[in-house]
Write a structure and sequence with these properties.
There is one protein chain. By secondary structure, this protein is α/β, with parallel strands linked by helices. The chain has one domain (about 5-175): Rossmann fold (3-Layer(aba) Sandwich). It contains 6 helices and 9 strands. It has helices spanning about 10-20, 50-60, 90-100, 115-120, 135-150, 160-175; strands spanning about 5, 25-30, 45, 70, 105-110, 120, 125, 130-135, 150-155. The chain has a 7-stranded mixed beta sheet, sandwiched between helices. Strand 6 and strand 7 form a beta hairpin. The relative contact order is 0.16. The model has no long low-confidence stretch (mean pLDDT about 95). Keywords: Oxidoreductase. Pfam families: F420_oxidored. It comes from Nocardioides guangzhouensis. One of its GO terms (molecular function) is oxidoreductase activity. This is Diguanylate cyclase.
Amino acid sequence: MAHLSIIGTGNMGQAIAALAGRGGHAVQLLGSDDAGVPITGDIVVLAVPYPAVRTVLAERGDALAGKVVVDITNPLDFETFDSLTVAADGSATEEIAAALPGSRVLKAFNTNFASTLASGSLGALTTTVLIAGDDTDAKADLAAVVDSGGLRALDAGSLKRARELEALGFLQITLAANEKVSWTGGLGVVA
């Protein structure tokens, strides 16, 4: 059984907490009022908007050393919805990994909407969570949480693949914001 600490109590934080709970894992859900509460999980999910990550790292960076840190952010310009706010050859996840050299940083959940995490399906497909990172054991630990919650985990490669996952997340959000796909739908993986 894994123990997750999820920083962020919005739709995504709650959906990930429910997923982990379905798999029988312990979950600590931390909101903005819980800044002084110690992180107890071995897997820490950053379920906050990308602009809030800097604050979380400033307040809790030392407590994340030695932990698996999962970045779910999509670093897009929320005013225009027309671009990512990170360099074209980088990613938000790589920035987080650079700021947390003592942590094992992964990218996951950013290509999923909360509704598909909660329902476990995307149309006729089982919801797939794409996971990128450089630490094989960390990816396996997160994949076990995803799989035990009834979803499908898929290893998307090294941490460098976070940039493609962020581009895919950006595309999906743009399509939903422009009512081309529904917020209860999205892009699926057929293997």
